[in-house]
Amino acid sequence: MSIHRMIALHPQVGDDFNETLATAARHAMFCAEMCASCADACIAEPMDMSQCIRSCLDCSDVCTATAQLAVRRTGHNPEALRALLDTCARVCELCAEECERHEHGHCQLCAEMCRECMRDCRVSIPTVN
């Protein structure tokens, strides 16, 4: 299954399919789950990981909201979507920076996903109309 196909099949999309935005939405969905999983793994670590947990949970929530707005194709609200994509990119960047401070494999993987989502959100901002 593909969110790209789902968006393309929306009755109001037609020729207005935005591949870049669909990719950002897809990666925001993945990032939300990766961050939630990383936060859960951080809870199980023996040292204090409270800041990393907070960063991951914040990022997960912002990514979820971003994905939800990005796949919503009835009507349009480009100003809100651009603002949320910009916020998502920044929050992903902050989460990646926090996760990169830790040597845990789950943190390193989370940071990688956050950076990918950050790039996709930034690329998609100018394409939103």
TrEMBL record:
<dbReference type="Pfam" id="PF03860">
    <property type="entry name" value="Csp"/>
</dbReference>
<dbReference type="InterPro" id="IPR005560">
    <property type="entry name" value="Csp_YhjQ"/>
</dbReference>
<dbReference type="InterPro" id="IPR044543">
    <property type="entry name" value="YHJQ-like"/>
</dbReference>
<protein>
    <submittedName>
        <fullName>Four-helix bundle copper-binding protein</fullName>
    </submittedName>
</protein>
